[in-house]
Amino acid sequence: MVAKIKTGRSILGAINYNEHKVRSGKAELILAQGYLKEPSNLSFSDKLNRLTDLTKRNERTQVNTLHVSLNFAVGENLDKWTLQQIADEYMEGLGFGKQPYLVYQHYDAGHPHLHLVSTNIKPDGERISFHLLANKASEQSRKQVELNYGLVKAEDQGKAQHNIKSLSVEQVAYGKSETKRAITNVVSEVLRTYKFTSIPEFNAVLNGFNVTADRGSKESRMYEKNGLVYWALDGKGGKIGVPIKASSIYGKPTLKTLEGRFALNEVLRKSLREQVKYTIDDLLSKPIGKTEFQLKLKEQNIEAIFRHSEDGRLYGVTFVDHKTKAVFNGSDLGKNYSANSLSQFFARSDGSIKPSHNVELSGNKHLPDNTGINGNNNFNGGSALLEALYQEEKQDMAAMGRLQQRKRKKKRRGHSL
C-alpha cells in the first residue's frame, strides 16, 4: 500500500475535489468517522462544517487540512468493510484516530485507492503537528496495516505491477462490475505490456478481454476530429452499454497517445518478429487446415485472429504472441503470412495438396531449442531476444534513443535543403 500525504490551507478545496468525483460517478463516500449521521445522509454542508468548525478554534494555524490517498496494488480488490477498517487503522496510527474524517473510495484509476480528508485542529484548539508526519508516523502506520491485512508492500508494489501477466486481467463482464473501471484496467494493462502498431492490432488484444477501441465511422465527426472511445463488448463481440471517452480514462489513451506508442512499439517488436515467423513456419511445413492451425498456435500461446467479410472471404489476419507480448499483422511478417496467402494455403491443404514453393519458410533453422517456442516460458539468457523479453526498461530506453536519432537526422536533412 502506498500512502501519499498532502497538507493545505483549504478544507473546502479538499472536499470539493472528492465531491466532484462523487457527482461524476467516479467516487463514493464510504465512511464518515466522527460524524453524527450515516455517510449517505450527509449533505455537503454537513461534511464541510464538521471540519471547518474545528479550524475556527485555531485561526492562527493556516495549514490545517490533511488530504491522504491510500493506493493499493492492481488486483487487490478489497471489499468496502475491509477498506473502512484499513482507513481507521491507518488514521489511528497516524495520530488522527480521534479526529473527524471522510473516506472516499475512488474508481477513476487502474488501481484501487482511497482518499481521506481531515483537519489537524483538535476540539480544544490544539494543533497536531504535520512535521515529519509523512516520513515517520505515516510510514509506521502503513507498514502495520500492510502486515495486518496481507497487502502488497509499498516497496514491492512497483515490482508486483511490473510482473503482472496481462492474461490475468479479467474480461469485462458488463453489469457485473463498474464498466469504466473494468475497461480502464484492461486498457492500461494492454497498453503497458503489448507491442502493437495500429488500432486494429490494439483491438486484436483488447477484444479478447471484451473491450474495443472505436474511432467511429469515417464519415463521423468523431473520426474527423481524431476522437476515440472505448466500448465494452458482449459475448458475441457486439458493443454494449455506453462508450467511454479515451480522454476520461486514467492515462488518457487517446489516439494521439496511441500514435506515439505505435512508433515506439515498431522498434520494440522488431527483434521478436522472427520468433513468431519460425513458429508459424513450423506449422506450415505440412498441410494443415485453418482451425487446426489456430489451435496449434494457441497451444504455443499465439493467437491467430482471422477477419472475414460478410460473404465469408478471409481478408485479414493478426497474430498475437502472448509470450513476448508482440502483435503483428500478417502482411507485416511477410507476403507469405498475409490473409490471401494463408487462405490459398488452407485451400490446398483441404484438397490434400502439399504446399508448393509459394509458401517460403523464413529460414530460421538455427534458433536454439530453448527459445520457448515449444509453449513454455523457459528462456535462457545470452541473446538479444532474451534481453528484449526480460529487460523492458532497458529496451524502452534504447528504442527511445533510436527514435530520437531518427528525428534528429530528419531535422538535419530538412535544414540542409
UniProtKB/TrEMBL annotation:
Residues 17-151 form the MobA/VirD2-like nuclease domain. This is Relaxase/mobilization nuclease domain-containing protein. It comes from Mucilaginibacter myungsuensis. It comes from the Bacteria. InterPro entries: Endonuclease_MobA/VirD2.
